[in-house]
Amino acid sequence: FSRREFAAGIAALERAAALNPNDTVVRATLATYLIRTGEFEHGLEAARETLERNPLAPGYLYTTIGLRHYLAGDYDGALDALARTRYQEDVQTLILQAAAEGQLKRPGARDRLEALREADPGFEDAPMDELRRYFLLEDSAAAVATGLRLAGLEID
């Protein structure tokens, strides 16, 4: 994935999931990359299946589900999913929370931005580069950037 060879990475994760269907880390990672590469419904179904197999699946899976809700324009759904992750101080969680709260014009958006600044002091140096790195697709990064702007972050 770091080489942006998404199809090969997803194929490898699908093979690993087929070999050990009970490995919820592999299944959660597969769901994450499906959603981050634009295969939203397939990714969301993989996330649901992972949670059915193991309700204590990796906490980052809720960040992935939150991203899917955010990109679908369901900002309340995004915040609900993000509230369930065990990684509340994670940069990606904070980014999505601030963006969703910005879209909803909630005053808490600025608090999330402050938490983001504390978690990653260099984020504002090149926010679009960071968003592309985290969310992979230009459209996804741009959608999240819109929410962050509404939250009060200055992004070129």
In short:
This protein is mostly helical and 156 residues long. 71% of the residues lie in helices and 0% in strands.
Structure overview:
By secondary structure, this protein is mainly alpha-helical. It has helices spanning 6-19, 24-36, 40-53, 60-71, 75-83, 91-103, 108-119, 127-135, 138-151. It is globular. The model has no long low-confidence stretch (mean pLDDT 93).
Largest sheet: none
Listing every helix as H and every strand as E from the N terminus to the C terminus, the arrangement reads HHHHHHHHH
Strand content: under 5%
Residue-averaged pLDDT: 93
Number of strands: 0
Please state the CA-atom Rg, rounded to the nearest Å: 15 Å
Computed structural class? mainly alpha
Distance between the termini: 26 Å
How many helices does DSSP assign?
A: 9
Runs with pLDDT <50, length 5+? none
User: What is the 3D shape?
Assistant: globular
Helix content: over 70%
